[in-house]
Amino acid sequence: MKRRLKKSHIFILIVMLICPVVGPLFFLLACLWYKLFFSEPVDLDDVIFSKERVKASVRAEEEQERNMVSLEEAIEVTNESDLRNLMMNIVKGDIRKSLASISLALNSEDTETAHYAASVLQDALNDFRMTVEKQKKLIEEGGADKTVYADMLLNYMNDVLKQKVFTDMEQKSYVAEMDYVGEVMYAEAPDAMSIEQMEALILRLLEIDNFTDCEKWCERAKEKYPNTLAAYTCRLKLYFSSGQREKFFETIEELKQSPVVVDRETLELIRVFR
What we know:
mainly alpha
């Protein structure tokens, strides 16, 4: 945290030195905008209520993040031997869940590693494209297994799309496809759709600034799973990102009055937004 703050201070100093007039004015306007829209005081003690309502969460992508950090460090020190060994270890695992880590190696000064990473990544993305096309056809053909195919495809697409390895245009296109698959599943068997799947859709839509469809799924999550933390955090992220100040603080008030257990990640989210 301190490291991030130090970097931000350096960045601000550089901007002000380069642009002695515009720089300070820019940061002043940014501060005023933040104060105007998201400076309403929030009593975090009321959000927590007690230690029993706070739980520590272990992120599912922890192993993947460790791989990314290790690979990033290997690239920075340009240790070819370590980098190649690390790449081989990552490829031995589930490649589909390590695409973001592999993509980091594209920037390596070691041409052999960079070319290998590009080849592995290209093959994986082509497999994804073909699988999505094949599964979509099965869904569109209908039949008794329509919901099963939709369920499988929704999870499969999210595993890849959350890593953001496509171009912006292709990412938006596939998120739209994912939204379509979600619609099919929700129309056929709304009770079979989990809060985790709804949350995944919301986050992917939020990443491409599709606030309209994002809000649609937020309302569905609230309706189907009212006493889950994800139903609240998804709305908080949406309202902050789309500048809906009143709804943001209304949701915090709802969370305070609910029996939902708040994890540390959510508390940090509220502190940052505050």
